[in-house]
Amino acid sequence: MFQDQLKEKVRPLIDLIDEMRYLGIEKQLNLPAIVVVGDQSSGKSSVLEALSGVALPRGTGIVTRCPLLLQLCYEKHNVWKAEISYREQIYEFTEPSKVVNYVEEAQNDLAGKGDGICEELITLKIKSKTVCDLTLIDLPGIARVAVKGQPEDIGEKIKGLILNYIKRKETIILVVVPCNVDIATTEALQMAQQVDVEGTRTLAILTKPDLIDPGAERIILDIVQNRTIPLNLGYVIVKCRGQKQIDENMSIIDAIEDEKEFFKRHLHFSSLEEKTTIINLSKKLTVTLVEHIKKSLPEMSEKIKKLLGDVRNKLNKLKHEPALDPSEKRKHLIKVITEFIEKINQLSNGDIITEENLFVLMRKDYKQWMGILTNSIENYQKHVQEVAAEYDKTHRGSELPGFSNYNVFRQVAQKLLGELVNPAMMTVHTVREMVQKQFDILSKDCFEGYPFLQQFSKRNIESIQDQQSQMAMGRIKEQFEMEMLVYTQDEIFNIQNKLDSETTDYTEQDKRTNYPELLKAYYEIVVQRMGDQVPMLIYYFILKEGAKNVCSEMLSLLYEDDIDKILQEDSYIEINRVKLKAQLECLLHANEKLNNL
């Protein structure tokens, strides 16, 4: 009757959470869940058996070796059936006795045979008329000492796994504690208290009440009545099948009836009413989970809306799905290549910025080049003295010192210019690397998911940059060779000389003693020319012509016949697209359900 009354209200909420969990968005949403924790031999497996109506793996040591998501679905008129799934494997069966084997096989597949653990989830879905609508996650029991075959840190690994689940504020912590131990010292409850200090989301189950020492019943009563360690969700005391009853083949249904009689006749616990028995526990858990889900709905709705936006953005970044019609494919290729050409032209004009501003980077290098030129002017006097001294030493005839030949000063200019060739070539190399990197970034962005287009463009970008940098260096070397002629228009030279000279008497310019000043004026003209000419040649050949030639090569693909090869997507793109579409569909469905609820 309880299940029939709650089914219409409970099932949609629990199904919604289970569906979102199944589609892999649990981590993004931190879905509401009930997580079962307990020390080894706390009676955890027995409680889950009683709730699910089926036998689960039992034994000494670590029995639960992987997180087990137990989905219980009340079906009034259906026969019993189950489904176990993990790592994209799904097995359906209709015989309850097979549950143990299927769970053990799943744990062996995931964690290996033995006593090791694994964090991967196993999902066991049971449909039956004897269960409540409820979803639980069972975690490995807390181990204190590693046994043979287990890693020494097995205890810490299990605690780490448990903490990953119970630290989430969306998780209800179901702590299983035997009645015959000191509850304050149980590690499971201590871990729960660490993450749920106020005790607002912890519910404790007390097991094995038949093993309480005579006279200790009052202690348990105080605990159940929330007087010892207060918990908002309180305590429930249950009596499940013990090993003796299992050996005697007592069924779970008979064990539930035996439990009713035990509490009904018990001198101390008969008055606890709804705080005892598996039946009351299942009701409490179902109501608690549903209320917890309801409280989580507003925040969950906001998270789903954000996820919807994120998934849509990721789908948009995957570009459009490849067309099937040949004419549509060619149109799509034209569109993809045109977008790339537009962007690379905008980049070469300084209209768009990728990861870094290309023109800012180039200006920094051109500024360094100008700094080298300026330094060479400052070193001018030193070079003049060195060359003049060398001339006087080896070539001077009858003339007095300081009346050197004009050729001496031409040699100074040529020597200084010769020292600038390597820095100019380094500037070409540096800017070429910048431009090629920016072109590659555009290629990767525009042709994302199309390996052929990426490889083709990358190969051509590198080849064209090789060619264009060689052309730029050739032209710059030609410029240096022309500068070796030591020439400028008289009007330009006179203007510069007038600016540099401190005297206003220009009738003395033909005197050899004025040669150093005259040469300095000329060299400043050279610096101005080279300060602009080198960057302009680099800009023209490497960036402008480089972009133009890359565009030309990409356009040549439009005349190719094998469009399928050119537009072949990376395999991961299609896989990712399918996955994102499934997530989008799930999120839209979840959002609709949330709005309706």
Automatic annotation (TrEMBL):
<dbReference type="InterPro" id="IPR030381">
    <property type="entry name" value="G_DYNAMIN_dom"/>
</dbReference>
<dbReference type="InterPro" id="IPR001401">
    <property type="entry name" value="Dynamin_GTPase"/>
</dbReference>
<dbReference type="InterPro" id="IPR045063">
    <property type="entry name" value="Dynamin_N"/>
</dbReference>
<dbReference type="Pfam" id="PF02212">
    <property type="entry name" value="GED"/>
</dbReference>
<dbReference type="Pfam" id="PF00350">
    <property type="entry name" value="Dynamin_N"/>
</dbReference>
<dbReference type="InterPro" id="IPR022812">
    <property type="entry name" value="Dynamin"/>
</dbReference>
<dbReference type="GO" id="GO:0005737">
    <property type="term" value="C:cytoplasm"/>
</dbReference>
<dbReference type="InterPro" id="IPR020850">
    <property type="entry name" value="GED_dom"/>
</dbReference>
<feature type="domain" description="Dynamin-type G">
    <location>
        <begin position="28"/>
        <end position="298"/>
    </location>
</feature>
<feature type="domain" description="GED">
    <location>
        <begin position="512"/>
        <end position="597"/>
    </location>
</feature>
<dbReference type="GO" id="GO:0016185">
    <property type="term" value="P:synaptic vesicle budding from presynaptic endocytic zone membrane"/>
</dbReference>
<dbReference type="InterPro" id="IPR003130">
    <property type="entry name" value="GED"/>
</dbReference>
<keyword id="KW-0963">Cytoplasm</keyword>
<keyword id="KW-0342">GTP-binding</keyword>
<dbReference type="GO" id="GO:0031623">
    <property type="term" value="P:receptor internalization"/>
</dbReference>
<dbReference type="InterPro" id="IPR019762">
    <property type="entry name" value="Dynamin_GTPase_CS"/>
</dbReference>
<dbReference type="GO" id="GO:0005874">
    <property type="term" value="C:microtubule"/>
</dbReference>
<keyword id="KW-0547">Nucleotide-binding</keyword>
<dbReference type="Pfam" id="PF01031">
    <property type="entry name" value="Dynamin_M"/>
</dbReference>
<dbReference type="GO" id="GO:0003924">
    <property type="term" value="F:GTPase activity"/>
</dbReference>
<dbReference type="GO" id="GO:0051607">
    <property type="term" value="P:defense response to virus"/>
</dbReference>
<dbReference type="GO" id="GO:0005525">
    <property type="term" value="F:GTP binding"/>
</dbReference>
<dbReference type="GO" id="GO:0008017">
    <property type="term" value="F:microtubule binding"/>
</dbReference>
<dbReference type="GO" id="GO:0005634">
    <property type="term" value="C:nucleus"/>
</dbReference>
<dbReference type="GO" id="GO:0005886">
    <property type="term" value="C:plasma membrane"/>
</dbReference>
<dbReference type="InterPro" id="IPR027417">
    <property type="entry name" value="P-loop_NTPase"/>
</dbReference>
<dbReference type="InterPro" id="IPR000375">
    <property type="entry name" value="Dynamin_stalk"/>
</dbReference>
<dbReference type="GO" id="GO:0098793">
    <property type="term" value="C:presynapse"/>
</dbReference>
<protein>
    <recommendedName>
        <fullName>Interferon-induced GTP-binding protein Mx</fullName>
    </recommendedName>
</protein>
<comment type="similarity">
    <text>Belongs to the TRAFAC class dynamin-like GTPase superfamily. Dynamin/Fzo/YdjA family.</text>
</comment>
